[in-house]
Amino acid sequence: MTNHFQNILTAVDSSDESMQAFRRGLSLAKKHHSQLTVAHVIEYKTLNRLIHYIPTIVETAGEQGRTLLNIYKAEAEGAGVEIQTRMAHGMPKFIITKELAPEHDTDLIITGASGAGTVGRFMMGSVSTGIVRHAKCDVLVVRNKDSGSDYKKMIIAIDGSEESWHAFDKGIALAVEENATVLITHVIDLVVLTSMEQYDAGLITEMERYSGQLLEEHREKALNAGLEHVEAAIYYGAPKVVIAEELGEKYKADLIVLGASGLNTTERFFLGSVSEGVVHRAACDVLIVRLPDEEQQ
Question: UspA domain location, by residue (predicted)?
Fold first, then answer.
C-alpha cells in the first residue's frame, strides 16, 4: 500500500461502537506497522452539571477511564501491537482534533459512529460529528460490527477536485491491499441544478459529458493500480443521500471513501457539502480524506 497511515489515533469510550473503532485501528496498525494511540477524553462540562448530585462523579470517571484504557492496551498487546494510551479532560471533539492529533503527528483519527450515549460513559457518540468537522487529517468513522475483517466492497465518490483525487488514491490503495470490489461514482445534484435561476437544460448534457470523462479517467487509473474488480457509474439526486443510502444499500458497501471538502462551487457539483451528510446517513464505515497541511489552502 502506497498510502500507509503512520500514526493512528483512536478515540474511545466504553461503548460497543468504540470497541469496533478500536479493533479497526488495531487491524490497520498491524497491517501498516503504524503507531497506534488510544485516547479517552473525560468531558468535565457535562460531569460538572451532576457534581452536586454525585460529588464523586469526576473521580469515578477518572478511575473508569484508566480501567478502560488498560483493557484496550491489554487487547492490543495480546495481538502483538504496542500502543500508547492517553487520558485527557475537556471537550472531546476539540481535545482529540486540536491537541492530541497534532501532538502525535496523527494522519488518521478513528472514532465510533454513536458511542455510549450516556453521561456515565462519557458520550463519545455526540463527538464523532465534531471530530469529522474539526480534524485536519483523515477521519474514519466506524459502524461495521465485523471491524477486524478486510473491507470487501467499497464506494469511492469523486468530483474532480484535488482533494477528491487524493481520496481516490487512498481508497484505491486500500482496495488493492484488501482485494476489494470498488464502485467509483460521481453524483450529479439535480436538486441544486433545478433551483438555479438561470437553469439551462443543456447544462445537464455538459455535466454528463464531463462526468463520463472523469469516471473513465479514474477507472483506468484504478485498473492500472492493479485493482481487478472496479465499476464506474454516474448517478443523479442529492449526493449525500444517493451515496450513503441508495448506493450503500445497493452495493452492500462496507466502506465509503470521499474527500472532506471537494470543489465547493455550484457548477462543479457540491461534493464538499456532502461529506458530513454521508457520515450521518451511511450504515457502513466512512473514510473522510483531507489533503496534507502543506497542500490545504
Answer: 5-143, 151-290
79 and 13 housed in the same domain: yes
- Between CA 159 and CA 165 the distance in angstroms is 8
Read off the amino acid at residue 246: E
Q: Which three cell numbers stand for residue 18?
A: 468504540
Domain holding 118, by residue range, is 7-142
DSSP string, 148-201: TSPP-EEEEE--SSHHHHHHHHHHHHHHHHHT-EEEEEEEE-HHHHHT-TT--H
Model confidence over 127-174: pLDDT tens digits? 788 899 899 999 999 998 887 788 999 999 999 999 999 999 999 999
Question: Does residue 171 sit in the same domain as residue 214?
Answer: yes
Q: At what angle do helices 201-224 and 162-178 cross, to 10 degrees?
A: 40
Q: pTM for the full model?
A: 0.88
Q: Are 287 and 257 in contact (CB under 8 A)?
A: yes
